[in-house]
Write a structure and sequence with these properties.
Blueprint: H1 6-64, E1 76-84, E2 87-95, E3 100-101, H2 107-116, H3 121-135, H4 148-153, H5 179-185, E4 189-190, H6 205-211, H7 216-232, E5 254-263, E6 267-278, E7 285-298
Parallel strand pairs: 3-4
Antiparallel strand pairs: 1-2, 2-5, 5-6, 6-7
Helix pairs in contact: 2-3, 2-6
Length: 309
């Protein structure tokens, strides 16, 4: 005789399995929902950071277009932090006349720049000659340089360009250019300085070290003094002693702006752009020469302020 509870037990087991299955489905849906919310939050945060960076670029441009030179940023790479709605932005402006022009600088200035990053003098001289050989239109090899035969002998799939650099990245193709040195000099070289020298009034420290025989201590004190004087509205201090052959006194009209927007939720986006500025009231204009797309990322730190805009 069968038990009246046998069928009920089977139904109970089925109900328990159904409850377990529904619980798993609910957990899965909950997880997917949380992931979706996180994804939307990341997208919103990244977008906010991107627009904060755009705002930083616009602030820098408005400053650079100002008619009064004493109110403009120095353009020596000083880091500035500005508070904006829903976050902040870090801004750095470089006057390209304060950088070493890789199309025009002499082998001596190039070599001194390489030595400023602890490259051995013999290797620095050879690399500087190789840079000149890469850009000059002839096939004559400098004392320690490299033309097509040297590139071929080294098994490289390219030769000397025999014309001006059109992008900084081409420096990586120069015979003997080590990756570590390229990464270090990248912020301090340019294709937009058409002078053989540099403007010491806006040159960053590594460039001043390469162009001046003054002590590093004095050069650092000069940079600190010019920034402090700008903030106080005082005349800039006298620049350090720089050999005339390395000097270009004219201020540039081409600037590189690096802006990084930081949201209150920990996301940041960076924009780098190089512009030519034309001042003159109603005729003021900005020409974009280069634009590096922004990078979106989760932040792990916070911007450091060293000045005011």
């Amino acid at each position: 005789m069968s038990s009246p509870y046998k069928g009920r037990g089977f139904v109970l087991v089925m109900v328990l399995w159904l409850i377990a299955l529904l619980t798993i489905i609910a957990l899965g849906l909950s997880y997917n929902t949380r992931q979706s919310v996180r994804g939307v939050g990341a997208l919103v945060g990244a977008t906010q950071a991107r627009y904060l960076a755009h705002g930083g670029v616009q602030l820098a441009l408005m400053n650079l277009l100002g008619e009064r030179p004493e109110h403009r940023l120095l353009g020596d790479g000083e880091q500035l932090a500005v508070q904006l709605p829903n976050g902040s932005v870090n801004i750095a402006v470089f006057d390209e006349s304060g950088k070493v022009g890789i199309n025009t600088a002499s082998p001596e200035l190039l070599s001194r720049l390489f030595e400023a990053f602890d490259m051995e003098e013999r290797l620095a001289d050879a690399l500087a000659d190789a840079v000149v050989d890469y850009r000059d239109p002839d096939d004559l090899v400098s004392l320690n340089g490299a033309e097509d035969d040297q590139y071929l002998a080294a098994g490289l799939p390219w030769e000397a360009k025999d014309s001006d650099f059109t992008r900084i990245e081409e420096l990586q193709r120069v015979y003997g250019m080590p990756a570590w040195l390229y990464e270090n000099i990248l912020p301090y070289v340019t294709i937009h300085n058409i002078d053989r020298g540099i403007n010491p009034e806006v040159a960053p420290l590594p460039v001043l070290i390469s162009a001046s025989d003054d002590s590093v201590y004095n050069l650092e004190a000069y940079i600190k003094g010019r920034r402090e004087n700008r903030i106080l509205g005082l005349p800039l201090p006298a620049p350090p002693a720089v050999d005339r052959k390395f000097t270009a006194r004219a201020r540039g009209t081409v600037f590189t702006i690096i802006a990084t927007g930081w949201t209150s939720t920990g996301y940041h986006a960076s924009i780098t752009t190089t512009v030519r500025v034309k001042r003159g009231g109603s005729n003021a204009a900005v020409e974009t020469l280069d634009w590096i797309p922004y990078k979106l990322d989760a932040a792990t730190g916070s911007p450091q302020a060293s000045g005011e805009l």
